[in-house]
Amino acid sequence: MPHCIIEYSAPLAQQLSIAKLVQAVHQGAIDSGLFTPSAIKSRAHACEHFLVGEDSAQSFIHVRLAIMPGRTDEQKQALTQSVFAALEPTAAKVDSVSLEVTELHQPSYLKRGS
């Protein structure tokens, strides 16, 4: 754990390497020191239809870090800061970059495999 889920405005794929973006976010989660590296799962989804304010031409990246309950607010903040620091060089020219930590509902979370 965590699941690092990256949403991005689809036109960004023409401006930056999405593979490098995923790697940067993944590395930021590793660098946080909060998780076993083999437990981190990272993926990216392009958003074809979006608006940022009133401007459909602006670019965005939003990273959701879904974790199991039990981390302190300080640990969650350290996680977002670590991921942001790792992804910022790749995303420097993106108009809007945001990150959030969400907690999975442990009683209903089901997992098979690694």
UniProtKB/TrEMBL annotation:
<dbReference type="InterPro" id="IPR004220">
    <property type="entry name" value="5-COMe_2-OHmuconate_Isoase"/>
</dbReference>
<dbReference type="Pfam" id="PF02962">
    <property type="entry name" value="CHMI"/>
</dbReference>
<dbReference type="GO" id="GO:0008704">
    <property type="term" value="F:5-carboxymethyl-2-hydroxymuconate delta-isomerase activity"/>
</dbReference>
<keyword id="KW-0413">Isomerase</keyword>
<protein>
    <submittedName>
        <fullName>5-carboxymethyl-2-hydroxymuconate Delta-isomerase</fullName>
        <ecNumber>5.3.3.10</ecNumber>
    </submittedName>
</protein>
<dbReference type="InterPro" id="IPR014347">
    <property type="entry name" value="Tautomerase/MIF_sf"/>
</dbReference>
